[in-house]
């Protein structure tokens, strides 16, 4: 397992974060198989709490495996439910 890159965090890394300076984009994706020294591996907590620098955009391309609220008896979630209206 890979550990979160944040200091003193011992959680398992689940996401990889890349900074695209040319586009000013903070790019979050599912953990890549090979560790890349140019990228940051973060746990779900730190990835979720990530805030982009001023005038940067956050691009979250992680797959949505768990839909918040789905466990509370909201019924089956279809793909259409996840699309923006
Ligand atoms: Zn962490």
What can you see in these coordinates?
- With 85 residues, the chain is an alpha+beta fold.
- The chain has one domain (15-82).
- The protein has two helices and four strands.
- The chain has helices spanning 44-49, 79-82; strands at residues 15-20, 25-30, 40-42, 57-60.
- A four-stranded mixed β-sheet has the order 3-1-2-4.
- The chain binds zinc ion (ZN).
- Zinc ion (ZN) is lined by residues 4, 6, 9, 11, 42-43, 45-46.
**Helix and strand string, N-terminal first?**
EEEHEH
Helix-strand category: alpha+beta
Q: Give the strand tally.
A: 4
Mean pLDDT: 85
**Strand percentage, roughly?**
15-25%
Q: What small-molecule ligands were found? A: zinc ion
Q: Domains counted in the coordinates: how many?
A: 1
Taking strands numbered 1, 2, ... along the chain, how are they ordered across the largest sheet? 3-1-2-4
Major sheet attributes: 4 strands, mixed
Number of helices: 2
Helical content class: 10-25%
Instruction: Assign an overall shape.
Output: globular
Tell me the Rg in angstroms: 15 Å
> Regions with pLDDT < 50 over 5+ consecutive residues?
none
